[in-house]
């Protein structure tokens, strides 16, 4: 799984998503993250399949929406996603949100999907520690990934450490706080030291915390800039400073209290 990729949440289906993916692939990205909820899987498939590189060279993730959770409906949902993307498999298939016992039934189907090669890896999204503790005893296959909201104002130290112990790769959505990292004085100051933007500093912080990151953008220059994070390394002091910015603040829904 590539450490860095492009998220397409809220990217409009059609030209906007297709162009964003082209810009990303042009910039060297090989990891694209979508979901059935985003309503742009067709555009993801069209862009990836039409770019001119072998399918196996691009890591594609999609996610199962809550209304499709359950044993039988999971198979149908993935079939629909694959049809939309015109792909034989996805590299990673995630349960989008935790739904208790229903997710246990869903996971049985996910494990079969994995065994059949329709998803090269399977995982979850938005699972907190207590939800993983309830879920994992029912798993024959440990989730490969847990994709969660993760950024300097929500560092989730307990979850990150728990996932590391369980062999689950943590992945960050909304890593740049919907652009708000550009207003954080500490990130601005650290960026000036390295000749980098607050966004680049934040994405580099993800990687040095061993967290996969998938910032979303549809603008060509931002997509290129976001990927320009492999030519510097944050000092331990600066890593600690960013770790200390935590406010337990969410920009998205709370996985322990949502109603969809």
Automatic annotation (TrEMBL):
Segments forming domain NADP-dependent oxidoreductase: 6-246
Xref: InterPro entries: AKR, Aldo/ket_reductase_CS, NAD(P)_OxRdtase_dom_sf, NADP_OxRdtase_dom
Stored Pfam families: Aldo_ket_red
Stored SUPFAM superfamilies: NAD(P)-linked oxidoreductase (SSF51430)
UniProt keyword Oxidoreductase present: yes
Keywords: NADP, Oxidoreductase
Similarity section: Belongs to the aldo/keto reductase family.
Name under which the protein is recorded: 11-endoperoxide prostaglandin H2 reductase (Prostaglandin F2-alpha synthase)
Biological classification of the source: Eukaryota, Sar, Alveolata, Dinophyceae, Suessiales
């Amino acid at each position: 799984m590539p450490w860095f990729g492009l998220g397409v949440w809220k990217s409009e289906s059609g030209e906007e998503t297709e162009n964003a993916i082209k810009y990303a692939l042009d910039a060297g990205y090989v990891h694209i993250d979508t979901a059935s909820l985003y309503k742009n899987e067709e555009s993801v498939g069209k862009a990836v399949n039409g770019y001119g590189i072998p399918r196996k060279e691009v890591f594609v993730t999609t996610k199962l929406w809550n209304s499709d959770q359950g044993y039988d409906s999971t198979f149908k949902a993935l079939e629909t996603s694959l049809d939309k993307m015109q792909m034989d498999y996805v590299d990673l298939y995630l349960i989008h949100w935790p739904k208790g016992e229903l997710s246990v039934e869903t996971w049985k189907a996910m494990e079969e999907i994995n065994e059949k090669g329709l998803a090269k890896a399977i995982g979850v999204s938005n699972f907190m520690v207590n939800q993983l503790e309830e879920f994992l005893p029912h798993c024959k296959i440990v989730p490969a990934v847990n994709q969660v909201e993760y950024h300097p104002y929500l560092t989730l130290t307990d979850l990150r450490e728990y996932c590391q112990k369980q062999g689950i790769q943590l992945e960050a959505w909304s890593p740049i706080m919907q652009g708000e990292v550009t207003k954080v004085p500490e990130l601005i100051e650290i960026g000036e030291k390295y000749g980098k933007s607050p966004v680049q500093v934040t994405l580099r912080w993800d990687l040095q915390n061993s967290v996969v990151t998938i910032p979303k953008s549809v603008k060509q220059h931002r997509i290129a800039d976001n990927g320009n994070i492999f030519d510097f390394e944050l000092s331990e002091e600066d890593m600690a400073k960013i770790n200390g910015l935590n406010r337990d603040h969410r920009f998205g829904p709370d996985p322990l209290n949502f109603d969809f």
